[in-house]
Design brief:
alpha+beta; Rossmann fold; D-amino Acid Aminotransferase, Chain A, domain 1; Dna Ligase, domain 1; binds adenosine-5'-diphosphate; binds magnesium ion
Length: 297
C-alpha cells in the first residue's frame, strides 16, 4: 500500500473529536494526514496550492472536508471555489465540493431529494415575510430553521400564530432567509442512518431527551441513541438519499411519518460518537477506507 497524503479540512479546532479521529485513522492506515484550514491555503492558476508555511501542497492525493468555517459571503464563495479548484486539479475531495455545499444548504438538499421522489416535508424558503406568514397559516404547526444549521440549534417550533409571526419577523429583520417547514407528526424518536460508499453501515434511533418542551432528537441536545436495524423501505430511502446527493459518507436524518420515511436533511460531515458507541464500529476507519478507494480512481 503506497503512502498517500490526505488533507483534512477543519476550521476552529483540530482537536475536535471527529477530526482527531480521522487524522488518527489516516495514520493507522499508513498514510500521512495534513490538517489545514481553508484560509491557510492559497491557490494559483494554473493548478498550484501553497500552504501559508510556503510549502507547495499541490501533490495531495485527497482532501477530507469537515467544515469550510464561517465567514463573509466573499470568504465562503472563495472557499467553495477553492474546493472545486482542488477537484479540477485532480485531488479527490470528500465529500465532493458540490455535494458538500448542497448538503449544507437545507433548501438545495430538499429540492434535489424531492426531484428524485424522496418524501420530504412541505417547506417554504424565501425572503418575503408576508408570503412566509401565508404559508404558515396554510400549513398550521411549523418549524422555523436556519437555512444552514446543525445540532438542532436555532430552530423554533411555533405552534401559535403569534409566535410564528414574531419569530419570522425577527429573522427577516436580521436579513436571514426564511426557512419554514411543516411540523411532521412523529413518534418520540427519529432515525439517523449512516451511509458510507453506498452501503448502510449502521442506523440508530435518536430519542427526544427528557427535557420539558423538547421535541428535537439531536444527540448534542441530549437525545439518547439506540442501535436499530432498518426495514427495507427505510434502508432504501437512506441509500437513495446518499446517492441522489452524491455523498461518499453521510448521516441521513429520517422521520417516521405516517406516510413512511420522510428525510429532513443529510449531513455532509456527520459526527459518529453515538453511532460508534452503540454499534462498536470503527467509523473513522471506514471513512478513510472510502477516501483511499475514491482516490484510486
Ligand atoms: N419538520 C420537522 N418535523 C418534526 N420534527 C423535526 C422537523 N424538522 C426537524 N425536526 C426535529 O429537529 C431535529 C433537528 O432538525 P434538522 O433538520 O436535522 O436540523 P439540524 O441540522 O440542526 O440537525 C431533527 O432531528 C428532528 O428531531
Ligand atoms: Mg439533523
Amino acid at each position: 500500500m503506497s503512502n498517500r497524503l490526505f488533507g483534512v479540512v477543519y476550521h476552529e479546532n483540530v482537536n475536535n473529536w471527529a477530526t482527531a479521529g480521522l487524522i488518527e485513522a489516516i495514520k493507522a492506515k499508513g498514510h500521512t494526514p495534513m490538517p489545514f484550514r481553508l484560509p491557510d491555503i492559497a491557490a494559483q492558476i494554473p493548478n498550484k496550492f501553497i500552504h501559508l508555511n510556503e510549502e507547495d501542497v499541490s501533490h495531495m492525493d485527497g482532501v477530507l472536508v469537515r467544515t469550510i468555517g464561517f465567514g463573509t459571503g466573499d470568504q465562503i464563495t472563495y472557499r467553495i471555489s477553492l474546493l472545486e479548484h482542488l477537484e479540477d486539479a485532480g485531488i479527490y475531495v470528500m465529500n465532493p465540493a458540490y455535494s458538500f455545499r448542497r448538503a449544507k444548504d437545507k433548501y438545495a438538499t430538499l429540492t434535489a431529494l424531492n426531484k428524485a421522489g424522496i418524501h420530504v416535508p412541505r417547506t417554504y424558503i424565501g425572503e418575503n415575510l408576508e408570503s412566509a406568514i401565508n404559508f404558515a397559516d396554510e400549513v398550521g404547526d411549523v418549524v422555523i430553521k436556519p437555512l444552514i444549521g446543525a445540532r438542532g440549534m436555532g430552530m423554533i417550533r411555533a405552534e401559535h400564530r403569534e409566535l410564528t409571526y414574531r419569530a419570522m419577523k425577527f429573522i427577516h429583520q436580521l436579513g436571514q432567509v426564511l426557512y419554514v417547514q411543516e411540523l411532521i407528526e412523529k413518534p418520540d424518536r427519529d432515525i439517523r442512518a449512516f451511509v458510507i460508499g453506498g452501503e448502510l453501515i449502521g442506523a440508530m434511533y435518536r430519542y427526544v431527551p427528557d427535557i420539558e418542551g423538547e421535541w428535537r432528537t439531536n444527540v448534542h441536545g441530549g437525545g439518547e441513541a439506540e442501535v436499530t436495524e432498518l426495514s427495507p423501505e427505510y434502508e432504501e430511502c437512506a441509500l437513495k438519499t446518499a446517492e441522489v446527493l452524491n455523498l461518499d459518507y453521510t448521516g441521513v436524518d429520517i422521520i417516521e411519518s405516517k406516510d413512511g420515511p420522510c428525510v429532513i436533511e443529510a449531513n455532509a460531515a456527520p459526527s459518529w460518537s453515538a453511532l460508534s458507541r452503540v454499534t462498536g464500529l470503527d467509523i473513522a476507519g471506514l471513512i478513510i477506507d472510502q477516501l483511499v478507494k475514491q482516490c484510486k480512481r
